[in-house]
Amino acid sequence: MNPEEMPEQEHLPKPTVWPIGFAIGIAVVLVGLIVDPTYIAPVGALIAIVFGVLWARAATSELRGRTTAIEPERREAQVAPAAVSGDGAQPAGERFPRNKFLELSTLGLGGVIGGLVTVPIAGFAVLPSFLGQKHHRTDLGPVSDFAEGQWYISTFMTDPAEGEVSRRTAFVRNNGTTTVEGKAEPSFTIISNHCAHLGCPVQANGPTGAILGMKTISEHTVSGPIKLEPVVPAGFGCPCHGGQYDTEGNRTAGPPVRALDRYAFEIINGRLILLGTFSVAHVDGTGAQAQIHKYKSVGPGEHVDGWEQILYPINPPHN
Amino acid sequence: MAVTRRPPTKSEVRKQQMMAAVNFPLDWLEERSGLIGGVKYFLFRKVPSDTNWMQTLGSATLTAFIVQAVTGVILAMYYKPTPGDAYSSIQNITDHVTMGWLVRGMHKWGASVFIILMFLHMGRVFLFGAYKYPRELNWVVGVLLLLMGMLEGFTGYLLPWDQTAYWATVVGINLNGTAPFLGPWLAQFLRGGQEIGADTLTRFYSMHMLLIPGAIIGLILLHLYLVVRLGVTSPPWSKEEAGRERVDGDGSRPLPSGLTKPVARGAGGAK
């Protein structure tokens, strides 16, 4: 076609106002999620859906309006010559030509080889992150190191073979003994220092060791060197984004979505053994009488209760 | 008319011999590979007469990427991606390896230059309307390139293995972890396990220097192929009319396969 005669702007759809309505709907959803998720957000979603449908209709109107002309098939015309020739020596066409077979077999074989190579490689890239995760047991030393009612910032390595990169911190308080089903059981509050917002290291808000005139305890156990620094915390605070927690790990301010994680523990031969962590929605009461709303360990920033928990239906295997 | 022939002078002979010496290897290569013609086709394209300095931002971004690639390869010769050695090997590069401070500086600051240039290039394409038909696909490829560039920034940030690097990566991975449904799985995949450790460092290193640069190179080739195929857009203030072939519109040159009419060179020219 001569460029002079070309229709201008054939490919531009007609401008409509629907995208603006759609954008407003999305904006209302976002504002609603912050202000009032139960009422304003669904209204925004409704606006977005209605205008989105109108937009899609307007954008495809040209396509939907057009009818496609279909050429009639003319199969007889091809069959006829073979019938006319009559002798049957020359078939109308090979049913399965050799080049078609070679083409398909090359593609098929290539696909099989590609698949055989890709599957183990992809598995090697992805699966080790999820399978065979180590369970850590950390010996924090004799229970007698922990004075009753005193907080300690304890630092330890979960995997001494891996070195400093496995160094972790927990806040430990010996609550004395509590009576469970008629038996006297030792009680400890052991709070992980991983912020429940995005995993930064939470700090104890309060004076430590030297200021208190108390000595930092060093132990060498099967889990490597352990340090126990006495502290009197008014709570815990995160330096990254300002999350604040009380001494039971309940969120008091800032962006965290739940309380601080805790370590499970057991006491064997009078020694405090740390096991894996578990997540906590919130804690009622304090110390030995605390009622902990515990959940399986999940990542920072994940809700474990409330309606938001539906956003994280399946978590990766975790200790 | 009789042509008077005189024997060539000595300097003319020398000039001819020089030309023959230069042309011989080029002709040899062209005859066997067609590469000379290919490079000429790629470099000496017809562009609108009123192209703008803003349209060099894409080439500038490519240059920034090449600088990152070259300096990165050299840094990889000295860097050790293990928790025990990473930080000290970077100190060694900065303080002891000859010119190490310069190459590391180029890589560190060049990373920001790369990202900034990508955004400027993107802004230019947007403001010139150069993403419109038939170049929509190139916009999509460009967005993927932007994504890959950001991933390079994210994975490269961990490698110095200092406090900033470590905690920024903790926060970055956990941010990914808060994405609904697959977030926790993505975070654990990035970490290479439940906790950040030696595996995280090596896998970030591998992604940073092998996986993502490979993807970027592939996407750049696709990006350039589309630029060559579709031509350069003239600026919005161009006096040329939209939808016209500039030079070869007389039908003397066959259209690229798949196109039924000459490609719109000017995206929004005045009528």
Q: In a nutshell, what does this entry contain?
A:
With 319 residues, chain A is α+β, with helices and mostly antiparallel strands.
Q: Top keywords for this entry?
A:
heterodimer, A: 319 residues, alpha+beta, Rieske Iron-sulfur Protein, five-stranded antiparallel beta sheet, four-stranded antiparallel beta sheet, 13 strands, B: Cytochrome Bc1 Complex, Chain C, disordered C terminus
- Low-pLDDT segments, ≥5 res of chain A: 80-86
Distance between the termini of chain B: 54 Å
User: C-alpha Rg of chain B, in Å?
Assistant: 26 Å
Q: Helical element count of chain A?
A: 5
Beta fraction of chain B: under 5%
Q: Kindly report the CATH topology of the domain at 54-230 in chain B.
A: Cytochrome Bc1 Complex, Chain C
- CATH top level label of the domain at 138-311 in chain A: Mainly Beta
Number of strands of chain B: 0
Distance between the termini of chain A: 69 Å
**What class would the helix/strand composition of chain A place it in?**
alpha+beta
Any idea of the CATH class of the domain at 54-230 in chain B?
Answer: Mainly Alpha
Q: What is Rg of chain A? A: 34 Å
The biggest sheet of chain A amounts to:
5 strands, antiparallel
Helical fraction of chain B: 55-70%
CATH homologous superfamily name of the domain at 138-311 in chain A?
A: Rieske [2Fe-2S] iron-sulphur domain
Mean pLDDT of chain B: 88
Oligomer: heterodimer
According to CATH, the homologous superfamily of the domain at 54-230 in chain B is: Cytochrome Bc1 Complex, Chain C
The name of the CATH topology of the domain at 138-311 in chain A is Rieske Iron-sulfur Protein
CATH architecture group name of the domain at 138-311 in chain A = 3-layer Sandwich
